[in-house]
Amino acid sequence: MEEILNIVQGMKSITLDEMSAVKLMNRIDTKYVVTEAQLHAILLGIKDNYYAQEVEGNRLSPYSTVYYDTPELTMYLIHHDRHLVRDKVRVRTYVDSHLTFCEVKHKNNKGRTKKKRIEVEPIPNIIDNPEAAAFLAKKQPYEVSSLSPHLITIFDRFTLVNYDKTERLTIDCNLRFENLRSGQTASMAPLAVMELKQDGRAHSLLKDVLFELRIRPFKVSKYCIGTCMTRPEVKQNRFKKKLRRIEKLKAISNQLSAVSSVKSVLNADS
Question: Is the entire prediction scored with pTM above 0.85?
Fold first, then answer.
């Protein structure tokens, strides 16, 4: 991870305000799950053509998100059962800036996702906040009183934008889950989840690099994968293939890390 951070630190910086000005009018979103070795190779391939977002001197930003659902996990099951129209309710905290937002993500039957949010105070249950409760009653279809905290996701994020400002790339590392109902925890580390948001009309150097490295898109929902990992009794047939792929990638990454550690010891002794 230190080598990856060094590469990002060596990239030209872009401020949060400058990043906010990047408007992708014909946006296409694509997700990938990669090992540390793959991420290292990707960053080496794009580092001279992308800015790294810097906030208060930091390029690696910690995030904490609490997902809400009904007692029956209706939002999770709607996603699992491949419904095109679906919603997610979450409270996201930007740890460095001490900002917390109540958010609703709505996906329509054309695959488009829209996000609405309001800033809130970080309290244990956002439903107890009258302003947030009123916002949720207006922006999502579930009875607000039926929603409660279910899953916490914690991760560290790099955000990159290409020099032409036709795409943004978020890279989430050290991804951990804590289920507030089952008490179980899980992790996707040492894997990283990348999400590319690009102008569909523009050429993408990143996609060229991914093609050369034979890295394919991997549709993944942090909420759904985290739920599967921390609530193994829930319905998860649709996600079993993804879960197996994640475990395979984790095993490969751990093996490569072990080999690298051995080489370091041998080189130190020689």
Answer: yes
